[in-house]
C-alpha cells in the first residue's frame, strides 16, 4: 500500500478501536453504554479532532470513558504515525524506509532525512506546551472545582485545545461560555489553539531559527495568513455582532469581554470548537463568515482540518496573478511550481464537492423545521474539524450522523490524501510517453 492508503486505514483502525472502547458499559456514567452509533460518532469526532458530539461528555461519560476520549484526541491530534513511531523508538525498533515514507506523508515533509528526530521533537514540544497550558488553566479551575477535579480539568482542556478538538467537560454551560469574562482561560485556550493550528514544523522552525527572515517559505506563509485571518475575523465578528443583544451586544457584558469574545470566535472558528458565545444566536452574516473560516481551517501538518491556510494563500495568489496578468507565482522572493497551484485547486474543488454533497444528503433526511443555515453550519464544522454547532447535532437523523462521520473523516485525513489513497496505481511512464496536440477552449 502507498503511504496515503496506510494513513487513511490507520485513522479508520483507531476510530474502530475507540468505538469499541466507548461502547463498553464502563465508559458510560450510567453503566448502560452510550450506544453503537453514538460511540462511533464520538470516536470519529475525537480521532478527527472535531469536537461535534451527540452526548454530553462531562455528564454521559464515566472517568474511564473520558480518559479513552482524551487518548483518542491526543492520538488524532498528533497523528497515528507519530504515536507509532514513538512506540517503535521506545521498543528499540528500527524505523524502515517504508515507515519513513508514511511519516513523510503524515508530517507533510519534503525530505526523508531527519524525520525520526522531527518526530521526537514534536513529542517534546507537545508535552511542554500542553503541560504549560494545563498549569495555567488549573489556576482558574482549581478554585472552582477543587484540586483533583481542577487539575484534571486543566489537563483535559489543555490537550483538547492544543489538539484543536474542542471537547470540554463543563456541564454548567454550553462549551466554556461560563468563562467568557475570564482572561486567563480565554487567552490560554486561544494560545493553545493557535500553536496547535500552525503546525509542528512551523513551531520547530520558529524555535530553531527565531528570526522571520531566516524562516522557511512555508513558515512565513503560514504565520502571515494565520495572523491576517485572526485579525480580519476578529474585526468582522465584532462589527457584525456588537448590536446583537444575544451575543456581543449583551448590555451586561464588559467591553473588554466583547473584544475578547470577537477575538476568541475568530480563533476558534477555524478549527478548534470551543466557544464563549452561543453559535445559535449568531447573526446570519456571522454564520456565513464562520463557515468561510471553517472551510479554510488550520495549516498543513497541524492538529486542525480544512483546506489549510497555505492552500488558501496559493489560490488567492493564483487569482491575483490571473487578474494582473503575471505568469509566475512568487512569494517572499521565491517562485512556486505550477504543480503546487494545481494541487491547491484540486483540494479546493474536491473539498467544495464534499461539503455540497454532504449538505444535500442531510437536507434530504432532515425535517424542514431545521433551518438550512444550521445544516450548512454543521457540515462546514464537520469538514473543517471545528466542532462548533448551533445545537442540533444530538437531534439529527441517524443518516445525517453517518454523513457527518464521513465528512469529519474526509476533513481530517485530507481530501487530496484520501483521493490519492483510493485512486488506482497509474503508470508514470505511459503518461509521459506521448502528448496530444495542443488546442484552445473558451472558459468563463
TrEMBL record:
Membrane topology note: Multi-pass membrane protein
Residue spans crossing the bilayer: 7-26, 32-55, 67-91, 118-138, 183-207, 219-240, 289-320, 340-365, 402-424
Signal peptide: none
GO cellular component terms given for this protein: plasma membrane
UniProt-listed NCBIfam families: 2a38
InterPro entries, sorted: Cat_transpt (IPR003445), TrkH (IPR004772)
Keywords on record: Cell membrane, Ion transport, Membrane, Potassium, Potassium transport, Transmembrane, Transmembrane helix, Transport
GO molecular function: potassium:chloride symporter activity
Record localization: Cell membrane
Keyword presence, Cell membrane: yes
Protein name: Trk family potassium uptake protein
